[in-house]
What does this fold into?
Amino acid sequence: MQKEIVLNIKGMNCAACSASVEGALSRVEGVIYASVNLAANSAVVVSEEGVTEQELITAVEKAGFGASVAKDGQMVTQDEHRFHKWEIILAIVCGVVVMYIGMGAHWNWPLPSVVSPDIQPLNYALIQLIITIPVIFAGRSFFTNGMKALTKGHPTMDTLVMLGTGSALVYSIVMTCFIPTDAHAVHSLYFESAAVVVALVLLGKYLEESSKNRAKSAISNLASLVPQDAVIIKDGREQKIKAGDVKKGDIVLVSIGQRIPVDGVVKEGQASVDESTLTGESLPVYKGEGSKVSGGTLVSDGVLHVEATNVGSNTAISQVVKLVVQAQQKKAKISRLADKISAVFVPAVTAIAIISAVIWAIAGQDANFVVNIFVSVLVVACPCALGLATPIAVMVGTGRGAQMGILFRGGDVVETTGAVNTVLLDKTGTITKGQLHVTNVVAENGDEDTLVRLAASAEYGATHPIAKAIIDYAKFMDIEPRKPENIKNVAGRGVIAQIKQGEIVIGTKEFMDLQGIPTEESRTPGTTRVYVAFNGAMLGVIALADEIKEDAANTVKMLHQAGIETVMITGDNEKAAQLIAIQAGIDRFVANVLPEDKAAEVQKVKDSGKKVAFVGDGINDAPALATADVGISVFGGTDVAADSSGIILMKDDTDSIAQSILLSRRIMRTIKQNLFWAFIYNVIGIPIAAGVWFAFGGPTLTPMFAGLAMAFSSVCVVLNSLRLSVYKKKKSAE
It folds into this structure.
């Protein structure tokens, strides 16, 4: 037996942190898989049944971080700021003052004589030290956490900042001690570098955390839509209770401006309901007696009495929040390279800093230059950008998807969907409305009423779309079907029913052939044909047709423009399938496919080297959804179909199919941009800081500029990802 445990992690600040936590969890005996998400500050652990939550928490704490079990498997949807605003302001103000004093002597800026390095060199040093102390206090966590990580053997970004600024600070203090006997030591101070680097990194981390909070806004906004209270009608009286205390069958009263706290059915009243939180559709939907309503949706006008069918964590909005949160916890494969680099990043950078300093010292450079190189290399390196490149884009992108009514089950699903080049669509309910209606009845002996009555009797009590269409047609014709004594249903083929007068056989032409009943070619091409026989004699044919969805053709065209091949799979006959395929503009179709054979058809396309998405919503689609590289189903379809899907669509339209693939591609493009920036920043920045450019006649990189670059590198990655929050779906094919 295996189980999944979700933890909220505290104290992670960079990719090296998440790599350390992941390694610590993976080393716990019995853990099968561990995945840590820096952007979400969470970890998902799959383990054997015997592994306890406390063992995992202890492992994280030993690595130098904090952990707690996520309630109901849900992660924290809002970060707490690691630093206070007043600390940031204090650090920046003091940092600017120290920088002015320290750089003023070099650039001939006006300075009071009391801090002049020429007139009062000791004052010059001591005043800088005094003003630097508040900056170090504001950034004290860099030093405490950095030292803790170093002693634990898992150095992090805090360790780099601690080593870099700490070295500059200690070196400056030592040089200050030499000033009374050697005034020239005043030119070997790095107080401004230590202060400004800490201030800039503080500002950068604060901006990064603010951006991460904004990235989580889609999730936190969804979570806030789950109503906390409900008004139920009990014994004729209104009673206000907690939404979680509502039970199935309770009648809930919802008035104008209130959110519906449960999933249910309207028993009384009428209203317009804003369902944009679930479907992304801005136009309110009319609800009256018998209408289904979902929790979290808003009553725009009117009053509804709703009988609860799903309550608490089982409501639609709660399931949506759960799915969106789960999406953050599953990593895309593309992030593995960054994870591997992050695991060795800080030790490698530290080694580069030491080696660079030693080489320049051997080359004859003075101590000031060597310290400058050592500090710059440590400070310029940024593992944060690597760690945030993938998860922050997935977080923002999947959050935007939820706002559009598209739910991804994880970053791995986003990555796979972005590579899809072939979409297989189940016809009924996907391309068509799934509402068959009788278009023609052809009776061999001209007695259409008898033909319809026998067909409706054979389908008595069935819920299949064909059965429903025939029964509805019988009611329309005022024909009363008779309940059969016995029914044998052959899935995808037909029905054999026994009545007092004899045996009714109804189904496909192939089914009739199997029963040995001769049939003639139908005179109703382009329709779904149901043959009806009684006591071995053919009575005639009922022709049915299904209407294509209004947006189907436009969706197929958008898929084609994106370079995606479309294939329709249906159990219909060749002519009926061809008619729908032509209307929708689909590349090719496969007709006469039995439900159990859909998965085999999907596998055939996969075997040809295609990356396949299958779209369906019925219980018989579950095997095909699971077989495809990506299964796409409609929320409100069967639970089995939804469980087999990587993407769940909240709107029953075809447009969402194309939008889910196009959004996935945009997310993947953003991830690649982030990774490129993170890699190229470190690949270029670290060598420059190490003095490679200087060796060929260029300038060196000062610690202050290195700190500035490091502070904003991860912010750039987050800001680039935040562009996904304003992603606009493609409205129509051009």
